[in-house]
Specification:
The chain has about 150 residues and is an alpha+beta fold. Helices cover about 35% and strands about 35% of the residues. Strands 2-1-6-5-4-3 form a 6-stranded mixed beta sheet.
Length: about 150
């Protein structure tokens, strides 16, 4: 059984999105803020788990340069894609688990939702990312007190 052109394009897009997030991870691990910022669109939004909002790939790069020279120096970013959903041929929402630490983080305690877009001149780029620290105890308590709040998967 051979793949249809649509299935092949979808598989290529999934691979390209994986490559984009890998490119951002490798740039982070090198402490290369310029390369990290290039993974974002010029008008991107980066909402950190602390609630800081950065706008645009250049600002994201500038801020991360300071972070990589400061308290994030020598850290490693771990990212695991858990879901990719396409909304048209040039937009996808990507959900990840991940974390940052000295060496590979043991627990992937942060969740991030990326909106990625394909631009003709750039390929796939991050248009928005929202990072959230997972609160396991609060989540467990919520599920125990209100079982209907537990996700299906």
């Amino acid at each position: 059984m051979s793949l249809t052109p649509r299935e092949t394009a979808h598989d290529n897009d999934v691979a390209a999105i994986h490559a984009l997030l890998e490119e951002s991870r490798v740039a982070w691990n090198r402490g290369d803020a310029t390369a990290y910022g290039r993974c974002f669109t010029l008008d991107a939004t980066d909402v950190t788990f602390a609630g800081t909002v950065y706008h645009g790939g250049q600002e994201i790069a500038r801020a991360h340069q300071a972070l990589f020279e400061g308290f994030l120096k020598g850290t490693e970013l771990a990212v695991e894609i858990t879901d990719i959903r396409f909304y048209g041929s040039d937009t996808a929402v990507v959900v990840t688990r991940g974390d940052v630490g000295r060496g590979r983080p043991r627990r992937l305690g942060k969740l991030a939702t990326y909106t990625v877009v394909r631009r003709p001149e750039e390929g796939w780029r991050i248009a928005a990312v929202q990072k959230t620290q997972r609160k396991r105890l609060m989540e467990a308590l919520s599920f125990r007190l209100q079982p209907a709040t537990r996700p299906a998967t």
